[in-house]
Structure formats: C-alpha cells, structure tokens
Amino acid sequence: MDHWFSIKLLEKETIAILVKKSGVEINPEEVTYDLLSAWINSKGIKQGILSEVIHEIAENIVTFHSPVEIAKGVLPVHGEPARLIPAAEARSLINNPENEKIDFKRLFTIPTVTFGQLIARKREASDGTPGITVFGEPIPAKRGKDVKVKNGENSVFNEENLGVYAAASGEVSYRSNCVNVYPVYKVDGDLSLKTGHIDFVGNVHVTGDVPSGFKINAQGDVRIEGVVEAAEIVAAGNIVVGGGVLGQGKGSIRCGGNFTSLYINQGNIMAGENIEAAQSILHSYCEAGKNIICISGKGNIAGGTCIAENMITANEIGNETYSKTLIYMKLQEPQPNNTFSGDGKIKELQLNLEKLQQLKDALIRQAGNSNRLDQATVSKIDNTIDQTSAKLSELYIEKTNFAIKDQINSSHVIIKGTLHPNVEISIGKYKRRVQSPFQSAKVYMEEKEIIINSL
C-alpha cells in the first residue's frame, strides 16, 4: 500500500486524508477493503474511521479521486473566557434576512443608570471539552481565560457577588474588564456649523448625521443614529453608527472598544476590540484588535483591506467581479517562557537512536565479513532502540498536547457562503491568493501553510 498511497494529517491530527501517489498504477486485486483497512490501522489510525468511504475507495480504486478524508477525530472546544455581562443586555444588531430593512434608530438604545444600580455581573470562565486525534490520543481543552475586573469611571466592582455597581448617575460604557459611567452630551439632529466639532469627557450621542469635515472626540462611547461621511471620530470606548459609514476614502474612525455599524463603504476604521457590520464592508480599510464580523443580511466583504488578530468571519468574501480583497490575520506574539521543556531531550534521544542504528549496522557488516554475528549484543541494541523510540514517541505526544493546550484559538477566517477568486489571505508572513471559488470554508495555518478547508 505504501507504494500507492500516503496519509496526510490536518487540524492537529484530527483529520486523516488518503492521498493517491502520482505516476503509479494500482492493481485493483491488491486493494481490497480488508487490506486497505489493515494498512490504515497499521499507521495507528483507529479513531473516527469512515468505513463507508474506505468501502467506496476499494470498490472504485481505479477511478476514485484523491485526496479523500478517511478518518475524523474531534477538535477540543476551549472554555469560554470570563466576561462582564450587562445587567440588561442592549442589542445593537440583530440577524435579519437580507431583504428585511434594519432600522438602527429603533433598535439600539442608550443604557442609563442611577447611583447604586447594578450595571453588570462577572461571569466566570468555563472549562472546555477535550478532543481526540485519529490516533485515539486525547487533546486537552484549555479553560477560558480569567478577566481581572477593574473599577471604572464612577463604578465599583464587588468581588464577593461579582457585581458592578454605579457610583454616579449617567450613561454606561462597557469595556472588556471594566464598566464606566459617564455624563452624556447629546446633539439633536445633524452636526453642523451651529454645533461645531465636539470634544467631550463622557459619551456623545448624535441623533442625526455627521457630515464630512467634522470631528468628534469622546472619552466614553459615541453613538450616531444617522450616516457618518468623511469625518474624524475618536472614542476611548465603543462607537455605534446606526445609518452606516460613507467615508469616500477619507476621514477616519478610531475607538478603543467595539465598532458597530449597519454597513461600511470606503471607510477607515480602527477598533481596539471588534468591528461588526450588519450588511457589508466595501472597499474599506478595517483593522480590529480581535475580530471582524459581517454575517447579517448579505454579510459581504469585498475590496479594500481587513486586518484582525483572532478571527474574520463573513457570509461572502470577494465578489463576482473579482475585486481585489486583502485579508490579513496578525499572529499573536509568543509568550515568554512558553516553550516546550522537552525539546532538548528529544534531540538527545534522536542522536542516541542514530548512534545505536549505526552501531547495529557496523556489527552486521562485520558479521558479514567474518560470518560471526554476536546475536546477544544485537538483541541488546534492538531492545535499547525500542525503549528509546518509545520514550521519543511519548515526548512527541507531550509536545503536540503542549502546543494544542497552549493555543487558545489560532487566527482563522470563516466564510459561511462563497470565497471568491482574487482574494489574498495573509496569516503572519505567509500569503495565499485564492484562484478558484470555495463554498463554506475555513482558512487557517497548518505547518507553515495556509489551508482552505471545507466546513
């Protein structure tokens, strides 16, 4: 079987792929279901074997097309991180069908609180669910990261009941590790020469549009019910734009928290946490410290550049006219002292194996010349080789589990619908240009190669 096939492993050894070698002719009589299954088992694969697929391969050995998935394990589901849950969740986005109009002016609300009111509660991190490789080896799940909640502006965290309480009356601004309560500056209608630029120490609420050339600077959140044109908006907290962004390739929007909008067209958006557009991101520059999400309505990302650290997900990336679209995933910096301690031992055992094999080969060559083989010595060497190989295998498994355990959720791209050609995807320093369309796919890094795998 080794002459005709090879097995490729994907997604941390949870998927086994059968690959037919090129340039070889297969004798159908020598590839039966039993023989093929036995060969697969000889490779140590025993979990999630797809027997029906192997039957089909054996019955159509001459015409079957490789690669074919023949076994599937289970990836671990890592625990949910601790987070602050608003006492009364305010929805800024809902998933609507593509043909249903989203009225942000009606949907998003501004949460206001009074002194002493419970405004949020910390939800503890959860344990994950372990996975299993196709070799039957367990893959540990990582418990979700904890969050150290800090006292925010005009808010107090009670460690006993994990509640956050308002120390003043005002409008709430939620962050990942604290909650702030700010005074509110409200503009009824559009920004104009009458209102001028806005620079405020709290939250800013504009019920109309922000035309080109105007500036808003807020230490809290910014909420705009209308459209933002080529304006400059900076917020230490979150920004919500109900009518969408028409940036004309000018202006900029920056926030330390989350940015949420109906759509983004020719905009320049930078968010410390997430960027979420309900309908589309078109010909824009978007950079998020965590995720970029575009899965409501059409959920299309086309043209421009999108950069994120954890995940980019959309219903559709690119378009039918093949507009050049750049997707870039930043790799997280390695943590100090975050290396596997057994690497030195692995190198030592590998060197010992080479020396033992060389010694065994030398004894066999000498025996060939003298017709006298010291069988006892060869047996001792074989026994030592077996013990060394077993220790080396254990260390390899430990190293694999260490890498998986340390990895919370590697950078990836999820496309629920179509991934179009002329989309260039970069993960760290590696690039891949999409040449043909894919349906419902996940893009991720595997052994210094960008993989596009069907969901």
TrEMBL record:
Flagellar Assembly Protein A N-terminal region domain segment(s): 26-176
InterPro entries: FapA, FapA_b_solenoid, FapA_N
Record protein name field: Flagellar Assembly Protein A N-terminal region domain-containing protein
Organism annotation: Fictibacillus arsenicus
Upper classification of the organism: Bacteria, Bacillati, Bacillota, Bacilli, Bacillales
